[in-house]
Design a protein that fits this description.
The protein is built from one helix and 79 strands. A hairpin with a 2-residue loop joins strand 16 and strand 17. Among the domains are: 168 residues, Sandwich (Jelly Rolls); 157 residues, Neuraminidase (6 Propeller), CATH 2.120.10; 134 residues, no CATH class; 122 residues, Sandwich (Immunoglobulin-like). The two termini are 28 Å apart. By secondary structure, the protein is an all-beta fold. Strands 1, 73, 76, 77 and 79 form a five-stranded antiparallel beta sheet that branches. Strands 2-72-78-74-75 form a five-stranded antiparallel beta sheet, with no helix packed on it. Strands 31, 32, 33, 34 and 35 form a five-stranded antiparallel beta sheet that branches.
């Protein structure tokens, strides 16, 4: 039977399809589609190129953003771009870090020593001392206890724990037959219920100061301790993974009551450094040894504050840094406010002069080293705000932890060890439960907060993160991280204030003023004005009462602690503002000058102000912002996620990822103001489904705040409370679905149909009717790649997802089709001047350039691979004679055409198409008037391709645009493609197969 020849049209513009079996994708869909857009229905056109805009001076920037349409880049520092000079300006540190917290233990007794070690598999050993020394084994990721609390030997004190090979080693000092021994036990990580018996490292341990420290390097545990022999001595030994204790090296006639040991492992061979404070003195010593305990340099003297109470050290690149916590008090009252100093020692023993890196903080952990930088946990102590801060070696604040629930300064000679794997650091810390909050009302009998119940938490700091939430509001960028950062165009600072004024004291005088005899209350507030002119205010201090009894010519001297834990320093320092209430004038009016303010000074502990003003002199001055019941401002916690909703900033608390914080409403001339009273708890359960886990992302759609968890979605509505906390109409969280969720905040993008987001199942759509649709099914092939940025592109119908595999996924929400862009690899993207702007891993910033078709120096080339074209059934018989391509010629190009037959893999036919539509230079056309545009082919480009294998079940065509630089022509728009038509003949829907492929 003769075949009936007929045409078969296949239109373009149906997008890519990777979810369906490639053998069954319908004709018109593409298996690959690169660098095309769908601006016209059923027409494929080339995307614009991305030209090199600028290059950052550093390669550690990870995120692009804009502030007031100015380009900024963040990483370890924040850079702002000046297009006039094509320069980047370093505006200051804004290092992103993600933190998470896992509770491990709660006790009714006071805990005074803790340490921990975490294995790479997440098994955690915590040692602690309450009424005795004990240890527990837990899952660091879930908190699930693996081994209950187990006692160490009865006389064990100051326990420390490290990981050596496949064992936890717990080291401690124990009294054996009246003699102090330095001992250890080994606990198999994979079988912790089988600990070894205690074994000796040394029997020569100082009785008065039995201090020691441990450090693991090159699969050995190095130990330094205060020994009892040789007229007092410092000894160093190591324990191998095979449980062999080395002989010790001795530094004779030295006595230390604080010891730190560390190693420089950045050189070809490790160098061990031992540092100790000389007992009863204001100084100490450092010595170094090689890995086999041969002395490199003998002890050299270093200088601490005369009353150092803790030390730690870190070494890299042939330089040792020693950090000492020195005790300190305010000049006017016996309140401790310690400070941190740093001394450096070279590999040859040259010691620097000590410098103070930060005041008001003590040491909360041993120093640790990640990506070329030294960090440590620092502790802040006060009656109401004891907290922890992660700082770097310069004292810069990187993260905030356990605000108002910290345990204060560590008095034991044991600092928690830090377990480091790659860019992740894990350490334990003490936490105390607030039972009764601080009362700031005048005359209250209970002023300071009341605490009880010690506990141990484990904190996880991840330094390999980008800022997962950037929100522009009130003239500033707010960036998530270990602290909530604010960038106002001048420099990055902490959003709000880390602490409020505490320990204020007022003293009265009988001369030199106009203060009458009566009861007064004073309140201090830290205030700061950002570049947008918004005044930020801390929470007020506890009101300080004083009654003046002298003549009406009295004055009061107010002593206020300065704010030292801040980035808000010169040239725009914090102001310390005082307010006064009296029996005769019962409103808190400002008494410090508006034009000559009392300025904060981070180099001193406190400042004083002499109040001489009569009540009549301050009437009409600004009043305390909390007057009338306005909620006081409290600095936000560390956070991973943020968004804007109803003129408020919403964040997710990094320490409790089921807790939303939100700001007061931001109105004209007001900053973002957070408070721990403005929170919403999103329960991690949903009926029979069980736990839905933590909040992972936030977005806004219409009148709803959308709350994502990994596998669930909720929403709330309402406008929220007023500034007093009243009239709160935020709804309870409403459950949408447990089918899908989002764990990648930067993938969320709003487009006319709803919110698109990346889930563990690919890219989904939350419609405006709150339905969920697997909108990313056609690009399911890319589900294993992570979205690094998502943008809707102005002037188009496109949503673009920058992927970590170098591909950009493009979705046209009008055509409802997908395509891919290659050649613009990015780690972050933003809209700058209304154009898609991308940052790559080489610190090069590229920007979409309409009408050009180069990505940097590389041409943009379109390509596609068709579905398998089968004109009858899946395996039906067909004959295809010719393929006709229809396109519009725009600029010179070539097309490489490959054809594959019968679901095969290898190319069976290759043809190169060279269009001749373009006009030659004047006079070069062989027949005048035959060229374009006079009488030539015009811009319609049609090609016929004869199939070399006409008889087949199916065939597939791939077309790649080619660029020939030898032509001397810049890459251009090339062509637009309308579709293809086939000349075919069909006969039967039953395929003919060989006998070897038949059975039965």
């Amino acid at each position: 039977m003769a075949l009936q020849k007929q045409g078969y049209n296949i239109s373009f513009g149906l997008g890519i399809e990777t979810k369906v079996d490639p053998n069954q994708v319908p004709a018109g869909k593409m298996l690959a589609l690169e660098n095309v857009i769908f601006n016209t229905d059923k027409l494929l056109a080339k995307r614009n190129g991305f030209g090199n805009l600028t290059t950052l001076p550093v390669t550690n920037s990870t995120t692009l953003a804009t502030l007031n349409d100015s380009l900024v880049a963040t990483g370890l520092d924040l850079y702002s771009y000046s297009p006039e000079t094509n320069q980047w300006n370093n505006q200051g540190i804004v290092q992103p870090v993600a933190l998470s917290v896992q509770p491990l233990l709660r006790k009714s007794q006071t805990i005074n020593v803790i340490d921990s070690a975490v294995s790479s598999s997440g098994v955690c050993c915590v040692v602690y001392t309450d009424t005795a020394s004990r240890y527990i084994i837990s899952n660091a990721n879930t908190g699930q206890q693996i081994l209950e609390s187990t006692d160490l030997p009865a006389t064990a004190v100051n326990p420390k724990v490290v990981i050596l090979g496949t064992y936890f080693l717990i080291v401690f000092v124990a009294t054996v037959a009246g003699t102090k021994h330095l001992q250890y036990i080994r606990i198999p990580i994979n079988n912790p219920s089988m600990p070894s018996a205690a074994a000796d490292i040394s029997t020569q341990v100082d009785t008065t100061h039995p201090v020691f420290d441990c450090y693991v390097a090159i699969n050995r545990m190095y130990v330094a301790w205060n020994a009892s022999d040789a007229g007092d001595a410092i000894r160093v030994a190591f324990v191998t993974a095979n449980n062999v204790v080395s002989s010790s090296t001795i530094f004779a006639t030295f006595d230390g009551d604080l010891i730190s040991i560390t190693a420089d492992e950045t050189g070809p061979t490790p160098i061990i450094y031992v540092t100790w404070r000389a007992t009863g003195s204001g100084g100490g010593y450092t010595a170094s040894l090689n890995q086999n305990l041969i002395v490199v340099f003998a002890p050299v003297a270093i200088v601490f504050s005369s009353n150092a109470v803790q030390i730690t050290s870190s070494a890299s690149d042939a330089l040792l840094s020693v950090f000492a916590e020195a005790a300190n008090t305010y000049s006017y009252v016996g309140v401790f406010t310690n400070l941190l100093q740093k001394v450096t020692v070279t590999s040859t023993g040259v010691v620097s002069v000590p410098t103070t890196i930060v005041m008001s903080l003590g040491l909360g952990s041993k120093a640790f080293f990640i990506d070329g930088n030294t960090y440590m946990l620092a502790t802040y102590q006060s009656a109401n705000q004891s907290s922890y801060f992660l700082i770097n070696s310069d004292g810069a604040i990187i993260a905030k932890l356990a605000y108002a629930n910290g345990a204060g300064y560590i008095s034991a000679p044991v600092l928690p060890t830090v377990s480091v794997y790659g860019t992740v650091a894990r350490m334990s810390y003490l936490i105390r439960t607030l039972l009764v909050p601080v009362n700031k009302s005048q005359g209250a009998t209970n002023i300071n907060g009341k605490y009880n119940l010690d506990g141990i938490n484990l904190v996880n700091f991840d330094f390999n993160v980008t800022s997962r939430g950037i929100s522009e509001i009130a003239g500033s960028l707010n960036l998530t991280g270990g602290i909530l950062w604010q960038y106002d165009g001048i420099k990055p600072v902490e959003q709000g204030f880390n602490v409020w004024p505490e320990d204020m004291v007022v003293q009265t005088s009988t001369i030199g003023g106009n203060i009458s005899s009566q009861l007064y209350y004073y309140v201090a507030v830290y205030e700061w004005t950002d570049a947008a002119g918004n005044i930020q205010r801390s929470a007020p201090s506890i009101p300080f009462a004083i009654t003046t009894t002298g003549p009406n010519t009295s004055s009061n001297t107010v002593h206020i602690p300065t704010l030292r834990i801040t980035y808000k320093v010169n040239p725009n320092p914090v102001r310390i503002v005082l307010y006064r209430w009296s029996v005769a004038q019962q409103t808190f009016y400002q008494i410090t000058s508006l034009t000559n303010p009392l300025l904060n000074n981070i180099a001193v502990d406190d400042v004083s102000y002499v109040d001489t003003l009569a009540d009549a002199d301050i009437t009409g001055n600004p009043i305390l912002y909390t007057t009338g019941g306005v909620i006081e401002n409290i600095g936000a916690p560390g956070c991973d996620v943020s968004t804007l909703y109803k003129s408020r900033l919403f964040i997710v608390d990094a320490e409790d990822k089921n807790l939303l914080w939100y700001s007061k409403q931001v109105i004209e001339a007001t900053p973002v103001e957070m408070s721990d009273l403005l929170t919403i708890f999103i329960a991690p359960t949903s009926g029979a489904q069980g736990s839905t886990g933590n909040i992972t992302a936030l977005s806004v759609m219409d009148d709803k705040l959308i709350i994502f968890k990994r596998d669930a979605i909720y929403y709330i509505t309402g406008n929220g409370p007023d500034n007093t906390g009243a009239n709160n109409d935020f709804s309870e969280p409403v459950y949408i679905t447990g089918t899908v969720g989002c764990n990648n905040p930067v993938s969320i993008i709003l487009q006319p149909q709803g919110i698109m987001f990346q889930s563990d199942k690919g890219i989904w759509l939350l419609g405006r009717d709150l339905s969920t649709t697997y909108i990313g099914a056609p690009v399911q092939k890319f589900n294993s790649s992570l979205v690094k940025a998502a943008l809707t592109i102005p002037g188009t119908n496109q949503v673009r997802f920058t992927m970590d595999n170098g591909v950009t996924l493009m979705y046209d929400y009008y055509q409802q089709q997908w395509g891919t862009f290659n050649g613009i690899p990015g780690i972050s993207s933003t809209l700058y001047k209304g154009l898609h702007t991308s940052l790559n891993s080489l610190a090069i910033i590229q920007q979409e350039t309409p009408g050009t078709y180069l990505d940097g120096a590389h041409p943009v080339l379109i390509s596609f691979t068709s579905a398998w074209i089968k004109l009858t059934e899946l395996q039906g018989f067909q004959r295809a004679y010719q393929i006709f391509l229809l396109s519009n010629y725009l600029t010179p190009h070539k097309l490489n055409v490959n054809i594959v037959y019968d679901y095969g893999q290898g190319i069976r036919q290759n043809n190169v198409i060279t269009p001749t539509n373009f006009s030659l230079a004047y006079g070069l056309d062989p027949l005048y008037g035959n060229g374009n545009p006079y009488g030539g082919p015009g811009n319609i480009e049609q090609w016929r391709i004869f199939l070399q294998q006409q008889k087949c079940q199916s065939f597939q065509i791939s077309v790649q645009e080619m660029y020939d630089p030898s032509q001397g022509i810049m890459p251009g728009a090339g062509l637009t493609m309308s579709g293809m038509n086939l000349l075919i003949g069909t006969k039967s829907s039953t395929p003919k197969l060989n006998a070897s492929q038949s059975v039965g």
